[in-house]
Design a protein that fits this description.
binds 3-acetylpyridine adenine dinucleotide, 20 strands, alpha/beta, 2 domains, eight-stranded mixed β-sheet, 16 helices
Length: about 525
Protein backbone atom coordinates (compact mmCIF):
# COMPACT_ATOMS: atom_id res chain seq x y z
CA UNK A 1 0.00 0.00 0.00
CA UNK A 2 1.31 3.44 -0.90
CA UNK A 3 0.77 6.10 1.72
CA UNK A 4 1.27 9.85 1.29
CA UNK A 5 3.36 12.02 3.57
CA UNK A 6 2.21 12.03 7.18
CA UNK A 7 0.38 15.18 8.25
CA UNK A 8 2.38 17.48 10.48
CA UNK A 9 1.10 17.08 14.04
CA UNK A 10 0.08 20.24 15.86
CA UNK A 11 -1.78 20.81 19.06
CA UNK A 12 -3.49 23.93 17.84
CA UNK A 13 -4.19 25.30 14.36
CA UNK A 14 -5.22 28.95 14.27
CA UNK A 15 -6.70 30.49 11.14
CA UNK A 16 -5.81 34.17 10.68
CA UNK A 17 -2.95 36.35 11.87
CA UNK A 18 -4.89 39.46 12.78
CA UNK A 19 -5.09 40.66 16.37
CA UNK A 20 -6.94 37.49 17.41
CA UNK A 21 -4.50 35.09 15.78
CA UNK A 22 -1.43 36.89 17.14
CA UNK A 23 -2.64 36.88 20.72
CA UNK A 24 -4.01 33.34 20.28
CA UNK A 25 -0.55 32.11 19.31
CA UNK A 26 1.03 33.91 22.25
CA UNK A 27 -1.40 32.33 24.73
CA UNK A 28 -1.22 28.82 23.23
CA UNK A 29 2.55 28.93 23.37
CA UNK A 30 2.26 29.91 27.00
CA UNK A 31 0.39 26.63 27.55
CA UNK A 32 3.27 24.77 25.90
CA UNK A 33 1.16 23.76 22.89
CA UNK A 34 2.58 23.29 19.40
CA UNK A 35 0.69 25.95 17.51
CA UNK A 36 0.71 27.23 13.97
CA UNK A 37 -1.13 30.21 12.56
CA UNK A 38 -2.22 30.10 8.91
CA UNK A 39 -2.65 33.46 7.24
CA UNK A 40 -3.70 34.05 3.65
CA UNK A 41 -2.10 37.53 3.51
CA UNK A 42 1.59 38.13 3.00
CA UNK A 43 1.81 39.80 6.41
CA UNK A 44 0.13 39.96 9.80
CA UNK A 45 -2.54 42.48 10.84
CA UNK A 46 -5.75 41.01 9.40
CA UNK A 47 -8.23 43.72 8.55
CA UNK A 48 -5.46 46.33 8.89
CA UNK A 49 -3.36 44.43 6.39
CA UNK A 50 -6.08 44.44 3.72
CA UNK A 51 -7.89 47.75 4.22
CA UNK A 52 -5.29 50.18 2.93
CA UNK A 53 -7.67 52.57 1.19
CA UNK A 54 -6.99 56.30 1.61
CA UNK A 55 -8.20 57.60 4.95
CA UNK A 56 -8.47 54.18 6.60
CA UNK A 57 -8.21 54.58 10.34
CA UNK A 58 -9.83 53.20 13.43
CA UNK A 59 -12.74 55.04 14.99
CA UNK A 60 -12.07 53.71 18.48
CA UNK A 61 -9.46 55.85 20.22
CA UNK A 62 -5.96 54.48 19.83
CA UNK A 63 -5.28 54.27 23.59
CA UNK A 64 -8.22 51.85 23.75
CA UNK A 65 -7.82 50.03 20.44
CA UNK A 66 -4.74 48.12 21.54
CA UNK A 67 -3.73 45.09 23.59
CA UNK A 68 -3.67 45.12 27.36
CA UNK A 69 -2.24 41.64 27.99
CA UNK A 70 1.25 43.03 28.43
CA UNK A 71 1.73 46.04 30.69
CA UNK A 72 5.17 46.61 29.17
CA UNK A 73 3.73 46.67 25.66
CA UNK A 74 0.97 49.11 26.51
CA UNK A 75 3.40 51.35 28.34
CA UNK A 76 6.10 51.42 25.70
CA UNK A 77 3.94 51.80 22.59
CA UNK A 78 3.22 55.40 21.63
CA UNK A 79 0.28 56.26 19.39
CA UNK A 80 0.68 59.49 17.51
CA UNK A 81 -2.99 60.41 16.99
CA UNK A 82 -6.28 60.25 18.84
CA UNK A 83 -7.56 57.88 16.12
CA UNK A 84 -4.76 55.80 14.63
CA UNK A 85 -4.29 55.44 10.89
CA UNK A 86 -4.21 52.07 9.17
CA UNK A 87 -0.42 52.22 8.57
CA UNK A 88 0.20 52.93 12.26
CA UNK A 89 -2.09 50.09 13.41
CA UNK A 90 -0.38 47.75 10.97
CA UNK A 91 3.03 48.79 12.34
CA UNK A 92 1.70 48.04 15.82
CA UNK A 93 0.56 44.53 14.77
CA UNK A 94 3.98 43.91 13.19
CA UNK A 95 5.70 45.21 16.31
CA UNK A 96 3.69 42.82 18.50
CA UNK A 97 4.54 39.90 16.20
CA UNK A 98 8.22 40.76 16.47
CA UNK A 99 8.31 41.65 20.16
CA UNK A 100 6.72 38.36 21.15
CA UNK A 101 8.69 36.37 18.58
CA UNK A 102 5.53 35.15 16.87
CA UNK A 103 6.58 35.05 13.22
CA UNK A 104 8.32 31.67 13.44
CA UNK A 105 4.94 29.97 13.94
CA UNK A 106 2.99 31.98 11.41
CA UNK A 107 2.65 30.54 7.93
CA UNK A 108 1.85 33.39 5.55
CA UNK A 109 0.19 33.24 2.14
CA UNK A 110 -1.60 30.06 3.14
CA UNK A 111 -5.34 29.50 3.33
CA UNK A 112 -7.02 26.66 5.12
CA UNK A 113 -9.32 25.00 2.61
CA UNK A 114 -10.69 22.15 4.62
CA UNK A 115 -10.87 20.92 8.20
CA UNK A 116 -12.55 17.68 9.28
CA UNK A 117 -12.86 16.33 12.81
CA UNK A 118 -12.07 12.68 13.36
CA UNK A 119 -13.69 11.24 16.47
CA UNK A 120 -11.28 8.27 16.61
CA UNK A 121 -8.27 10.53 17.19
CA UNK A 122 -10.21 13.51 18.61
CA UNK A 123 -8.38 15.79 16.24
CA UNK A 124 -8.85 17.93 13.17
CA UNK A 125 -7.35 17.06 9.78
CA UNK A 126 -6.55 20.35 8.19
CA UNK A 127 -5.50 20.95 4.59
CA UNK A 128 -4.15 24.10 3.05
CA UNK A 129 -4.36 25.58 -0.43
CA UNK A 130 -0.71 24.58 -0.83
CA UNK A 131 -1.66 20.93 -0.51
CA UNK A 132 -0.17 20.50 2.96
CA UNK A 133 -1.86 18.44 5.67
CA UNK A 134 -1.82 18.97 9.40
CA UNK A 135 -3.48 17.32 12.33
CA UNK A 136 -4.48 19.56 15.18
CA UNK A 137 -6.23 18.73 18.44
CA UNK A 138 -7.86 22.15 18.48
CA UNK A 139 -8.96 24.42 15.68
CA UNK A 140 -9.40 28.13 16.34
CA UNK A 141 -10.94 30.47 13.79
CA UNK A 142 -9.43 33.91 14.22
CA UNK A 143 -10.72 34.96 10.83
CA UNK A 144 -12.16 38.32 11.82
CA UNK A 145 -15.68 39.71 11.47
CA UNK A 146 -15.06 41.90 8.44
CA UNK A 147 -12.60 40.09 6.24
CA UNK A 148 -14.51 38.46 3.38
CA UNK A 149 -15.34 41.20 0.94
CA UNK A 150 -18.82 41.68 -0.48
CA UNK A 151 -18.44 42.14 -4.20
CA UNK A 152 -21.84 42.85 -5.73
CA UNK A 153 -22.62 40.80 -8.77
CA UNK A 154 -22.78 43.80 -11.13
CA UNK A 155 -23.36 42.78 -14.71
CA UNK A 156 -20.40 43.76 -16.87
CA UNK A 157 -17.95 44.40 -14.01
CA UNK A 158 -15.26 42.33 -15.73
CA UNK A 159 -15.64 44.39 -18.92
CA UNK A 160 -14.79 47.73 -17.31
CA UNK A 161 -11.72 49.08 -19.10
CA UNK A 162 -10.61 51.33 -16.24
CA UNK A 163 -9.14 50.45 -12.85
CA UNK A 164 -11.33 48.68 -10.27
CA UNK A 165 -10.62 48.49 -6.55
CA UNK A 166 -12.44 47.17 -3.49
CA UNK A 167 -11.67 49.10 -0.29
CA UNK A 168 -11.21 45.83 1.59
CA UNK A 169 -8.59 44.54 -0.90
CA UNK A 170 -6.66 47.73 -1.53
CA UNK A 171 -3.33 47.42 -3.39
CA UNK A 172 -0.06 47.93 -1.57
CA UNK A 173 1.19 50.45 -4.09
CA UNK A 174 -0.38 53.91 -3.96
CA UNK A 175 -3.37 54.44 -6.23
CA UNK A 176 -3.13 57.65 -8.23
CA UNK A 177 -6.47 59.46 -8.57
CA UNK A 178 -5.03 62.56 -10.19
CA UNK A 179 -6.79 63.58 -13.38
CA UNK A 180 -9.16 60.61 -13.14
CA UNK A 181 -12.93 60.39 -13.26
CA UNK A 182 -13.60 58.25 -10.22
CA UNK A 183 -16.82 56.51 -9.14
CA UNK A 184 -17.29 55.26 -5.58
CA UNK A 185 -20.08 52.76 -4.95
CA UNK A 186 -21.27 52.70 -1.33
CA UNK A 187 -21.54 55.13 1.53
CA UNK A 188 -20.57 53.02 4.57
CA UNK A 189 -17.57 53.65 6.86
CA UNK A 190 -14.97 52.78 4.22
CA UNK A 191 -16.50 55.13 1.65
CA UNK A 192 -17.04 57.88 4.19
CA UNK A 193 -13.37 57.76 5.18
CA UNK A 194 -11.98 57.57 1.66
CA UNK A 195 -14.29 59.93 -0.26
CA UNK A 196 -12.86 63.21 1.17
CA UNK A 197 -9.31 62.18 0.21
CA UNK A 198 -10.20 60.79 -3.21
CA UNK A 199 -12.10 64.03 -3.95
CA UNK A 200 -8.99 66.10 -3.26
CA UNK A 201 -7.06 64.38 -6.05
CA UNK A 202 -9.58 63.17 -8.60
CA UNK A 203 -10.64 65.22 -11.61
CA UNK A 204 -14.21 64.27 -10.78
CA UNK A 205 -15.85 62.02 -8.24
CA UNK A 206 -19.29 60.45 -8.49
CA UNK A 207 -20.58 58.89 -5.29
CA UNK A 208 -23.24 56.23 -5.93
CA UNK A 209 -25.37 56.14 -2.79
CA UNK A 210 -28.06 53.54 -2.10
CA UNK A 211 -28.59 54.37 1.57
CA UNK A 212 -27.50 57.59 3.27
CA UNK A 213 -25.56 57.09 6.50
CA UNK A 214 -25.16 59.02 9.70
CA UNK A 215 -21.64 60.17 10.45
CA UNK A 216 -20.08 62.03 13.35
CA UNK A 217 -16.93 64.14 12.94
CA UNK A 218 -13.79 62.48 14.29
CA UNK A 219 -12.12 65.72 15.40
CA UNK A 220 -8.95 63.74 15.10
CA UNK A 221 -5.76 65.37 16.41
CA UNK A 222 -2.27 64.45 17.55
CA UNK A 223 -2.55 62.45 20.76
CA UNK A 224 -2.52 64.80 23.72
CA UNK A 225 0.65 63.93 25.72
CA UNK A 226 -1.06 64.83 29.01
CA UNK A 227 -3.97 62.53 28.28
CA UNK A 228 -1.58 59.76 27.31
CA UNK A 229 0.40 60.23 30.53
CA UNK A 230 -2.78 60.17 32.62
CA UNK A 231 -3.96 56.95 30.99
CA UNK A 232 -0.56 55.31 31.26
CA UNK A 233 -0.28 56.23 34.94
CA UNK A 234 -3.08 53.71 35.54
CA UNK A 235 -3.62 51.84 32.29
CA UNK A 236 -5.11 48.83 34.08
CA UNK A 237 -7.64 51.03 35.85
CA UNK A 238 -8.51 52.74 32.56
CA UNK A 239 -9.12 49.36 30.88
CA UNK A 240 -11.14 48.04 33.82
CA UNK A 241 -13.34 51.14 33.79
CA UNK A 242 -14.03 50.85 30.05
CA UNK A 243 -14.79 47.13 30.34
CA UNK A 244 -17.76 48.02 32.56
CA UNK A 245 -19.33 50.23 29.88
CA UNK A 246 -21.97 48.81 27.51
CA UNK A 247 -19.75 48.67 24.41
CA UNK A 248 -16.57 47.94 26.35
CA UNK A 249 -15.28 51.28 25.08
CA UNK A 250 -14.83 54.57 26.89
CA UNK A 251 -17.92 56.37 25.57
CA UNK A 252 -19.20 58.47 28.47
CA UNK A 253 -22.55 56.85 29.31
CA UNK A 254 -25.65 58.75 30.35
CA UNK A 255 -28.26 57.01 32.47
CA UNK A 256 -31.00 59.40 31.39
CA UNK A 257 -33.50 58.81 28.61
CA UNK A 258 -33.63 61.32 25.75
CA UNK A 259 -37.28 62.14 26.37
CA UNK A 260 -36.75 62.88 30.07
CA UNK A 261 -35.17 66.22 29.23
CA UNK A 262 -36.24 69.31 27.30
CA UNK A 263 -35.38 69.72 23.64
CA UNK A 264 -32.92 72.50 24.50
CA UNK A 265 -31.10 70.27 26.98
CA UNK A 266 -31.07 67.40 24.50
CA UNK A 267 -29.71 69.54 21.71
CA UNK A 268 -26.97 70.83 24.04
CA UNK A 269 -26.03 67.24 24.88
CA UNK A 270 -26.00 66.19 21.20
CA UNK A 271 -23.99 69.30 20.33
CA UNK A 272 -21.46 68.54 23.02
CA UNK A 273 -21.09 64.94 21.77
CA UNK A 274 -20.81 66.21 18.17
CA UNK A 275 -18.04 68.58 19.27
CA UNK A 276 -16.24 65.79 21.15
CA UNK A 277 -16.51 63.66 18.03
CA UNK A 278 -16.61 59.92 17.49
CA UNK A 279 -18.92 57.05 18.33
CA UNK A 280 -19.65 58.32 21.85
CA UNK A 281 -22.55 60.17 20.24
CA UNK A 282 -24.59 56.98 20.55
CA UNK A 283 -24.19 56.99 24.33
CA UNK A 284 -25.76 60.46 24.62
CA UNK A 285 -28.89 58.86 26.13
CA UNK A 286 -29.45 55.41 27.55
CA UNK A 287 -32.50 54.71 25.39
CA UNK A 288 -31.24 55.76 21.95
CA UNK A 289 -30.97 52.19 20.74
CA UNK A 290 -34.18 51.05 22.42
CA UNK A 291 -36.84 53.72 21.94
CA UNK A 292 -37.77 54.87 18.44
CA UNK A 293 -39.04 58.23 19.66
CA UNK A 294 -35.83 58.90 21.61
CA UNK A 295 -33.79 57.86 18.59
CA UNK A 296 -35.79 60.18 16.32
CA UNK A 297 -34.50 63.18 18.33
CA UNK A 298 -30.91 62.16 17.57
CA UNK A 299 -31.78 61.64 13.91
CA UNK A 300 -33.32 65.09 13.67
CA UNK A 301 -30.23 66.66 15.22
CA UNK A 302 -27.93 64.87 12.79
CA UNK A 303 -30.04 65.71 9.73
CA UNK A 304 -29.96 69.35 10.80
CA UNK A 305 -26.16 69.17 10.95
CA UNK A 306 -26.01 67.79 7.42
CA UNK A 307 -28.20 70.65 6.18
CA UNK A 308 -25.94 73.17 7.95
CA UNK A 309 -22.80 71.75 6.33
CA UNK A 310 -23.99 70.94 2.80
CA UNK A 311 -24.83 74.06 0.82
CA UNK A 312 -27.12 72.55 -1.84
CA UNK A 313 -30.37 71.68 0.00
CA UNK A 314 -31.22 68.92 -2.48
CA UNK A 315 -27.87 67.24 -1.95
CA UNK A 316 -28.23 67.71 1.82
CA UNK A 317 -31.66 66.06 1.70
CA UNK A 318 -30.27 63.13 -0.24
CA UNK A 319 -27.42 62.74 2.24
CA UNK A 320 -29.87 62.74 5.16
CA UNK A 321 -30.58 59.24 6.40
CA UNK A 322 -34.09 58.26 7.42
CA UNK A 323 -33.29 55.06 9.31
CA UNK A 324 -32.75 54.74 13.05
CA UNK A 325 -29.43 56.26 14.18
CA UNK A 326 -26.95 53.45 14.92
CA UNK A 327 -29.08 50.80 13.24
CA UNK A 328 -26.49 50.63 10.53
CA UNK A 329 -23.02 51.03 12.01
CA UNK A 330 -22.53 54.72 12.86
CA UNK A 331 -19.68 56.27 10.85
CA UNK A 332 -16.97 58.68 11.93
CA UNK A 333 -15.49 61.04 9.37
CA UNK A 334 -13.16 63.87 8.59
CA UNK A 335 -14.84 66.32 6.24
CA UNK A 336 -17.26 63.84 4.65
CA UNK A 337 -20.37 65.99 4.29
CA UNK A 338 -18.32 69.06 3.41
CA UNK A 339 -16.83 67.15 0.46
CA UNK A 340 -20.21 67.43 -1.26
CA UNK A 341 -19.70 71.20 -1.46
CA UNK A 342 -16.82 70.65 -3.89
CA UNK A 343 -17.31 71.42 -7.55
CA UNK A 344 -15.82 68.09 -8.64
CA UNK A 345 -18.09 65.89 -6.48
CA UNK A 346 -21.55 64.62 -7.51
CA UNK A 347 -23.90 62.52 -5.42
CA UNK A 348 -25.91 59.99 -7.42
CA UNK A 349 -28.98 58.43 -5.84
CA UNK A 350 -28.97 54.76 -6.82
CA UNK A 351 -31.94 53.98 -4.63
CA UNK A 352 -34.36 55.80 -6.95
CA UNK A 353 -32.41 54.85 -10.10
CA UNK A 354 -30.55 51.59 -9.33
CA UNK A 355 -27.25 50.53 -10.84
CA UNK A 356 -28.07 48.52 -13.99
CA UNK A 357 -24.63 47.43 -15.10
CA UNK A 358 -21.00 48.35 -15.41
CA UNK A 359 -19.98 49.09 -18.97
CA UNK A 360 -16.60 49.22 -20.66
CA UNK A 361 -16.49 52.97 -20.05
CA UNK A 362 -18.36 53.47 -16.79
CA UNK A 363 -21.49 52.80 -14.81
CA UNK A 364 -25.05 52.75 -15.99
CA UNK A 365 -28.00 53.43 -13.70
CA UNK A 366 -31.68 53.23 -14.53
CA UNK A 367 -31.59 56.79 -15.83
CA UNK A 368 -28.04 57.73 -16.92
CA UNK A 369 -24.57 56.57 -17.91
CA UNK A 370 -21.51 57.91 -16.05
CA UNK A 371 -18.14 57.82 -17.80
CA UNK A 372 -15.43 56.69 -15.40
CA UNK A 373 -11.71 55.90 -15.40
CA UNK A 374 -11.78 54.24 -12.00
CA UNK A 375 -14.34 52.37 -9.95
CA UNK A 376 -13.94 52.09 -6.18
CA UNK A 377 -16.23 49.49 -4.65
CA UNK A 378 -16.76 50.39 -1.01
CA UNK A 379 -19.41 47.70 -0.80
CA UNK A 380 -18.43 46.11 2.49
CA UNK A 381 -18.14 42.56 3.72
CA UNK A 382 -19.87 39.24 4.10
CA UNK A 383 -19.66 40.04 7.79
CA UNK A 384 -19.19 37.73 10.75
CA UNK A 385 -19.76 34.40 8.97
CA UNK A 386 -18.24 34.92 5.50
CA UNK A 387 -14.72 33.77 6.27
CA UNK A 388 -15.76 30.78 8.38
CA UNK A 389 -18.16 29.55 5.74
CA UNK A 390 -15.61 29.79 2.95
CA UNK A 391 -13.70 26.94 4.63
CA UNK A 392 -15.06 23.42 4.27
CA UNK A 393 -15.35 22.64 8.00
CA UNK A 394 -16.85 19.27 8.87
CA UNK A 395 -17.81 17.89 12.24
CA UNK A 396 -17.56 14.18 13.12
CA UNK A 397 -20.98 13.45 11.60
CA UNK A 398 -19.82 14.84 8.25
CA UNK A 399 -22.09 17.86 8.59
CA UNK A 400 -20.46 21.03 7.31
CA UNK A 401 -20.55 24.33 9.15
CA UNK A 402 -22.35 25.74 6.11
CA UNK A 403 -25.11 23.14 6.50
CA UNK A 404 -25.35 23.75 10.21
CA UNK A 405 -25.59 27.52 9.73
CA UNK A 406 -27.83 27.41 6.65
CA UNK A 407 -30.56 29.32 8.48
CA UNK A 408 -28.07 31.65 10.16
CA UNK A 409 -25.19 31.14 12.59
CA UNK A 410 -25.90 29.19 15.78
CA UNK A 411 -23.32 29.32 18.50
CA UNK A 412 -22.88 29.00 22.22
CA UNK A 413 -21.47 32.35 23.42
CA UNK A 414 -20.08 33.05 19.95
CA UNK A 415 -17.23 30.77 21.03
CA UNK A 416 -18.33 27.30 19.98
CA UNK A 417 -21.03 25.49 18.03
CA UNK A 418 -22.55 22.10 18.78
CA UNK A 419 -21.55 19.25 16.47
CA UNK A 420 -18.06 20.73 16.07
CA UNK A 421 -15.82 19.55 18.92
CA UNK A 422 -12.53 21.20 19.88
CA UNK A 423 -13.46 24.11 17.65
CA UNK A 424 -13.50 27.74 18.76
CA UNK A 425 -14.36 31.02 17.10
CA UNK A 426 -12.86 34.30 18.25
CA UNK A 427 -15.47 37.09 18.34
CA UNK A 428 -17.88 34.82 16.48
CA UNK A 429 -21.57 35.51 15.85
CA UNK A 430 -23.44 35.59 19.13
CA UNK A 431 -20.67 37.49 20.92
CA UNK A 432 -20.36 41.29 21.38
CA UNK A 433 -17.67 41.49 18.67
CA UNK A 434 -18.61 44.31 16.32
CA UNK A 435 -20.80 45.95 18.97
CA UNK A 436 -17.77 46.34 21.20
CA UNK A 437 -14.20 47.55 21.16
CA UNK A 438 -12.73 44.70 19.12
CA UNK A 439 -9.29 44.31 20.66
CA UNK A 440 -10.47 43.94 24.28
CA UNK A 441 -13.18 41.58 23.00
CA UNK A 442 -10.56 39.55 21.18
CA UNK A 443 -8.41 39.35 24.30
CA UNK A 444 -11.38 38.29 26.41
CA UNK A 445 -12.21 35.50 23.93
CA UNK A 446 -8.65 34.29 23.51
CA UNK A 447 -8.13 34.26 27.26
CA UNK A 448 -11.33 32.29 27.73
CA UNK A 449 -10.35 29.76 25.03
CA UNK A 450 -6.81 29.43 26.40
CA UNK A 451 -8.11 28.89 29.94
CA UNK A 452 -10.58 26.32 28.62
CA UNK A 453 -7.90 24.41 26.71
CA UNK A 454 -5.62 24.65 29.76
CA UNK A 455 -8.44 23.13 31.84
CA UNK A 456 -8.76 20.19 29.42
CA UNK A 457 -5.02 19.63 29.21
CA UNK A 458 -4.55 19.61 32.97
CA UNK A 459 -7.23 16.96 33.34
CA UNK A 460 -6.14 14.84 30.40
CA UNK A 461 -9.48 15.51 28.65
CA UNK A 462 -9.51 15.14 24.89
CA UNK A 463 -12.75 16.60 23.68
CA UNK A 464 -15.05 19.52 24.33
CA UNK A 465 -18.29 20.31 22.55
CA UNK A 466 -21.12 22.75 23.21
CA UNK A 467 -24.44 21.03 23.90
CA UNK A 468 -27.35 21.69 21.60
CA UNK A 469 -29.48 22.81 24.56
CA UNK A 470 -26.94 25.40 25.73
CA UNK A 471 -26.59 26.66 22.18
CA UNK A 472 -30.34 26.91 21.65
CA UNK A 473 -30.85 28.85 24.82
CA UNK A 474 -27.95 31.19 23.97
CA UNK A 475 -29.28 31.81 20.45
CA UNK A 476 -32.72 32.55 21.91
CA UNK A 477 -31.15 34.97 24.39
CA UNK A 478 -29.14 36.79 21.69
CA UNK A 479 -32.34 37.23 19.67
CA UNK A 480 -34.32 38.33 22.68
CA UNK A 481 -31.77 41.02 23.48
CA UNK A 482 -31.65 42.15 19.83
CA UNK A 483 -35.45 42.30 19.67
CA UNK A 484 -35.52 44.71 22.58
CA UNK A 485 -33.42 47.11 20.51
CA UNK A 486 -34.00 49.06 17.33
CA UNK A 487 -31.21 47.17 15.51
CA UNK A 488 -33.47 44.80 13.54
CA UNK A 489 -35.33 47.77 12.03
CA UNK A 490 -33.08 48.40 9.01
CA UNK A 491 -31.05 46.53 6.41
CA UNK A 492 -27.63 46.32 7.99
CA UNK A 493 -24.71 43.95 7.68
CA UNK A 494 -25.32 43.12 11.38
CA UNK A 495 -28.33 41.23 9.97
CA UNK A 496 -26.56 39.95 6.87
CA UNK A 497 -28.96 42.09 4.83
CA UNK A 498 -26.18 43.44 2.58
CA UNK A 499 -25.44 40.05 1.03
CA UNK A 500 -28.17 38.76 -1.29
CA UNK A 501 -29.52 35.42 -0.07
CA UNK A 502 -27.87 35.56 3.36
CA UNK A 503 -30.28 34.58 6.16
CA UNK A 504 -31.56 37.60 8.05
CA UNK A 505 -30.31 37.01 11.59
CA UNK A 506 -28.96 39.61 13.99
CA UNK A 507 -25.45 38.29 14.58
CA UNK A 508 -23.70 40.27 17.34
CA UNK A 509 -24.66 40.27 21.02
CA UNK A 510 -25.35 43.61 22.63
CA UNK A 511 -23.78 44.15 26.04
CA UNK A 512 -20.11 43.60 26.77
CA UNK A 513 -20.22 43.50 30.62
CA UNK A 514 -23.07 40.96 30.99
CA UNK A 515 -21.48 38.86 28.29
CA UNK A 516 -18.13 38.69 30.08
CA UNK A 517 -19.94 37.83 33.29
CA UNK A 518 -21.75 34.96 31.54
CA UNK A 519 -18.50 33.59 30.05
CA UNK A 520 -16.80 33.71 33.45
CA UNK A 521 -19.74 31.98 35.07
CA UNK A 522 -19.73 29.20 32.45
CA UNK A 523 -16.02 28.60 33.07
CA UNK A 524 -16.28 28.68 36.84
CA UNK A 525 -19.15 26.18 36.72
CA UNK A 526 -16.84 23.67 35.05
CA UNK A 527 -17.71 24.76 31.50
CA UNK A 528 -21.44 24.57 31.91
CA UNK A 529 -23.22 23.90 28.63
CA UNK A 530 -20.26 21.97 27.22
CA UNK A 531 -19.66 18.21 27.16
CA UNK A 532 -16.13 17.38 28.25
CA UNK A 533 -14.75 13.89 27.76
O1 LIG B 1 -19.17 48.50 4.31
P1 LIG B 1 -20.72 48.78 4.60
P2 LIG B 1 -17.89 49.32 4.80
N1 LIG B 1 -25.43 48.68 -4.96
O2 LIG B 1 -21.39 47.46 4.45
C1 LIG B 1 -23.37 49.85 -0.49
C2 LIG B 1 -16.04 48.54 9.68
N2 LIG B 1 -15.17 49.63 9.30
O3 LIG B 1 -16.69 48.65 4.24
O4 LIG B 1 -26.44 50.52 2.83
C3 LIG B 1 -25.25 49.87 -4.37
O5 LIG B 1 -20.92 49.53 5.82
C4 LIG B 1 -24.18 49.78 0.77
O6 LIG B 1 -25.46 50.28 0.56
P3 LIG B 1 -26.68 49.83 1.53
C5 LIG B 1 -17.29 49.13 10.29
O7 LIG B 1 -17.76 48.28 11.28
C6 LIG B 1 -14.64 50.35 10.29
O8 LIG B 1 -18.04 50.74 4.55
O9 LIG B 1 -26.57 48.33 1.64
N3 LIG B 1 -24.68 50.03 -3.18
C7 LIG B 1 -23.31 50.61 1.70
O10 LIG B 1 -23.52 51.97 1.51
C8 LIG B 1 -18.18 49.18 9.09
O11 LIG B 1 -19.54 49.27 9.38
C9 LIG B 1 -13.88 51.41 10.00
O12 LIG B 1 -27.90 50.28 0.82
C10 LIG B 1 -24.26 48.92 -2.56
C11 LIG B 1 -21.90 50.26 1.24
O13 LIG B 1 -22.02 49.74 -0.07
C12 LIG B 1 -17.81 47.91 8.39
O14 LIG B 1 -16.41 47.82 8.53
C13 LIG B 1 -13.64 51.77 8.71
C14 LIG B 1 -24.39 47.65 -3.12
C15 LIG B 1 -21.26 49.21 2.11
O15 LIG B 1 -21.12 49.72 3.40
C16 LIG B 1 -18.15 47.85 6.94
O16 LIG B 1 -17.90 49.12 6.35
C17 LIG B 1 -14.17 51.02 7.69
C18 LIG B 1 -25.01 47.56 -4.38
N4 LIG B 1 -25.19 46.38 -4.96
C19 LIG B 1 -14.94 49.94 7.99
N5 LIG B 1 -23.86 46.75 -2.26
C20 LIG B 1 -13.36 52.20 11.12
O17 LIG B 1 -12.90 51.73 12.14
C21 LIG B 1 -23.43 47.44 -1.22
N6 LIG B 1 -23.67 48.75 -1.39
C22 LIG B 1 -13.50 53.59 10.98
Amino acid sequence: MVSGPQPVALDVAIVGAGFAGLFGLHRMRGLGLRTRVFERGAGVGGTWYWNRYPGARCDIESLEYSYQFSEELQQEWHWTERFATQPEILRYAEHVAERFDLMRDIQLETSIDRAAFDDATASWSVTTDRGESFSARYLILATGCLSSTNLPDFEGLADFAGETYHTGRWPHDPVDFRGKRVGVVGTGSSAIQSIPLIAQDAASLHVFQRTANYSIPAHNAPLDPEHEARVKADYRGFRAHNAQLPFGAGFAPNEQGALEVSQAERDAEYESRWQTGGLGFLSAYADLLFDAEANRTAGEFLRRKIHEIVRDPEVAALLSPDQVVGCKRLCVDTGYFDTFNRENVTLVDVRSAPIRRITKTGLETADAHYDLDMLVLATGFDAMTGSALRIDIRGPSGQTLGEKWAEGPRTYLGLATSGFPNFFTVTGPGSPSVLSNMIPSIEQHVNWIADCIGHLEQRGLKRIEATREAEESWVAHVNEVADETLYPSCNSWYLGANVPGKPRVFMPYLGFPPYVEKCDEVASNGYEGFLLS
